[in-house]
Amino acid sequence: MTMIPLSHSPSATSIRPSSTPPPPPAARSGRWRLRTADTAGVGAADHAAAAEALLRSGLRPESLPRHVAVVMDGNSRWARARGLSPADGHKAGGRNLERVVALSRVWGIRALTAFVCSHENLNRPKAEVEHMMGLSEWLIGDNVDKLSRQGIRLQVIGDASKMPGSLRRAAAQADEATRHNSRLHVMLAICYSGRWDMVQACRELARAARAGELSPDDIDERVLASRLATSAAGELACPDLVVRTSGELRLSNFLLWQAAYSEFFYTDKMWPDFGEAEYLEALRSYQSRDRRFGQTRV
Length: 298
Known about the structure:
The protein is an alpha/beta fold. The protein contains nine helices and six strands, in the order H-H-E-H-H-E-H-E-H-E-H-H-E-E-H. It has helices spanning 25-28, 44-56, 75-80, 86-107, 126-149, 165-178, 194-210, 221-225, 276-287; strands at residues 67-71, 111-118, 152-157, 184-192, 241-244, 263-266. It comes from Setaria viridis.
């Protein structure tokens, strides 16, 4: 099992497509195309309004979380409640992710990790899984140029062996095109699980030890963390705030190591309905927390 990308691993195979991969069939038919009118928060006026909303909210910009992680739950239930298909729900969820990325950039969030598809999601009906993979590929390809212009880095993390080849190529191309951007680091967790993440890190360390590159006694928390999927984000590898939508009160195998000292915010809103007001509420909740990291305040 490998991740995309494994920039810290000298044994990782780098994927360098020579041209943009073609969109999946449904995308070519127009079914998944995300029109500009559908993506709030991408224009200059929308950015100005979002910045003003942050000021009006009473939030302290200097105390915002640097890294926000979101479990984008409830897309299928959102669709079912409206008589729509699961595919329609995932499409709406993709649109909303664009909005949340735009808000994060305007508000000064430094890293955003979105749980797009888990290992467990791969057990859903084949048609739904194929749609999630195809939509993920299209979202990456349709946004990479815009994100690059905005100084946003886009990276896909997860088990590449479970991804279609076209998605792996789109992910590698996005990483190559945006790797030098630093305004916001967006990580899309696709075919990801926290347990898988720790297992693959241990395997890398075991291979390194067998090759004589390190001693087992050298392995500590810092060394193991350097092999996790989010390690490319450096000091931003661990989320300060984890947001979960749809009323579920669990982590669902997401960033198990990295979220050890994260603050959590749960909302009953389905992911497609998680908008600016809900995001501001999550940030207000975060700023109300006393983060002691196991220590006692004197």
